[in-house]
Design brief:
The protein is 38% helix and 11% strand. By secondary structure, the protein is α/β, with parallel strands linked by helices. A hairpin with a 3-residue loop joins strand 5 and strand 6.
């Protein structure tokens, strides 16, 4: 119920005027390919298995992905990469996430982001990040079974390190592993954005590799089936 209460508070939030304007403008104007679809146009809460041992941390909802579908990493190319990798690892019931009613279930994984609203240019301001930090920190506290935070990109990596009070700030890198208080781990991965996947900076074997690292640190089996 506490996660549900947090979800309700996130959905009602209008704290950041720039983000509210942008998410609603995108939902009204839409992308041509989705012209006939309703857009979510609201904050996007995290979702998954409340008993997750692995928490996947992104940056913020995509304008025409999560801001359209209402589910993190859903409805765009980034999501196709992520959920395919989770399915291969055996933590997702299907290889694709298309919308909130598609029947997808996650096991041992929770997916979230430090900023809950789609930002212009995928760049939240430091103030917007800080305004959303309370939601993010409460969410992590409620995920009591978490043992590994798999950060997709430097923004999520820094947010998890900040939450755990890491000083000096650990250096982000693909495959970087940082021991956290309480026997937990922070693992870095290049983000599954098209900027990385289309250029080959992030490949499927690389993503599968960090999933395997996360599985070992979390004490889970990896690999499909």
């Amino acid at each position: 119920m506490k996660l549900e209460n947090l979800r309700s508070e996130i959905l009602a939030c209008r704290r950041c005027p720039r983000l509210v304007r942008w998410r609603e403008q995108v939902a009204k104007e839409k992308k041509a390919a989705y012209r006939q679809e309703p857009y979510w146009g609201k904050p996007v809460p995290g979702w998954g298995d409340p008993q997750a041992r692995i928490v996947v941390v992104g940056l913020a909802p995509g304008a025409h992905g999560a801001n359209r579908t209402g589910r993190m990493f859903t409805g765009d190319e980034s999501g196709r990469w992520l959920y395919r990798a989770l399915w291969k690892a055996g933590w997702a019931s299907q290889a694709e996430s298309t919308g909130r009613g598609d029947g997808l279930q996650l096991r041992n994984v929770w997916i979230t982001a430090p900023v809950k609203c789609a930002p212009p240019g995928n760049r939240p301001t430091p103030q917007e990040r800080d305004d959303c930090a309370g939601f993010f920190e409460r969410e992590l506290r409620l995920l009591r079974a978490a043992r590994v935070y798999l950060a997709l990109g430097g923004f999520g990596f820094e947010a998890v390190a900040r939450y755990h009070g890491m000083q000096p700030k650990p250096k982000f890198g693909h495959g970087a592993e940082v021991a956290l208080p309480g026997g937990k781990w922070l693992i870095g991965s290049y983000h599954v954005s098209q900027q990385n996947t289309f250029t080959g900076r992030l490949t499927e074997p690389m993503l599968d590799g960090v999933m395997g690292r996360a599985a070992r640190r979390a004490g889970l089996s990896g690999g499909k089936g």
